[in-house]
Each structure stands twice: as C-alpha cells, then as structure tokens.
Amino acid sequence: MGPSLKSGNAIASVFEKKLIKIKREHGSVSEFIAEKLNHNIPKLFFFMIPILALLIKLCYLKRKDLFFVDHAIFSIHFQSFWFSLFILRLINISPVIDQILKAVLLVTASVYMVLALRAAYGTGVLRAIFYTLFVGVAYALFLGLFFMIDLIAIIYMT
User: Fold this and answer.
1) Full-model pTM
2) Burial tier of 40 (Cβ tally within 10 Å: 0-12, 13-18, 19+)
3) Considering its fold, how many domains does the chain have in total?
4) Is residue 130 part of a domain?
5) Can you give the residue range of the structural domain that contains 152?
6) Is residue 43 assigned to a domain?
7) What is the tens place of the pLDDT at every residue in 55-66?
8) Which among 70, 92, 102, 131 is least surrounded, fewest beta carbons within 10 Å?
9) How far apart (Å, rounded) are the C-alpha atoms in residues 102 and 1?
C-alpha cells in the first residue's frame, strides 16, 4: 500500500484529467479516440511489416540461406494481399454480412499464408499450418500491444 498505490492513483488521475479535457474540447471521447486510432492504422501496419518479418524469421531460424530481407519482402507481399482482401470490407452492406465477410476473409488470408509459405519457403503443409497459427497469434498479440500503446499515447498527448 506504499508508493506503488499512490503512483498508480497519480497515473489514473492524469488520464482522468486528459479524458475530461478531450470531452470538453471534442464532445465525445470515444469518437475522438476512434478517429485518432483510425488515422494511425496505416502507420501501425507499416510498423508491423518488420514485426511480421521477425516472426517469420523465428520460424525459419535453421535456414541459413534466408536473410531478414527475404522475410521482409515476404511480409510486404503478404500485407499487400491482406489489405487487398480487406478493401472488400468497405462495402459494409449490413452488420451481419460484415461479420460473415470478416470471417471469410480471415480464413482466406490464413489459407493464403499457408500456400505462400509453401511456395516461398518450400515448407510442408503441416509445418506451414503451424507457422501460420504461430505467426497469426503472435502478430495479433503485437498488434494489440501496439494499439494499446497508441491508445495511451493518444490520450496522454492530448
């Protein structure tokens, strides 16, 4: 109950003041934060390219013939495919169709990743599936972490 509790309260107090300031200046806190997050998404995904390359590098550590730049090129290729797929979500006919489309696109991207790993690296099917699962989960964790950092930065820098 010593200093750590007080410093936690101090941090909460700073963020509370920031949220009050955002509400006073912009009206809706959630709309302001959503707008700022949407503005930062392209930058965030650009930053994720080397993270994706690093995750793929971890899968192929034993392959001495592959360099980080090879994985970076693969990452740019895959993220380009990912963005191309998710342009379809801009249609947004209804929430139900959007949810179905999101699931279909996620499965499509996963199958594509398995096929791309097989084509680019000569990986077997089961290993490519395992690598896709590993990279997908780790990528999602990193993306979530960076979204949280972005969210904290948005609130703190306002």
Assistant:
1) 0.82
2) middle
3) 1
4) yes
5) 39-157
6) yes
7) 999 999 999 999
8) 92
9) 46
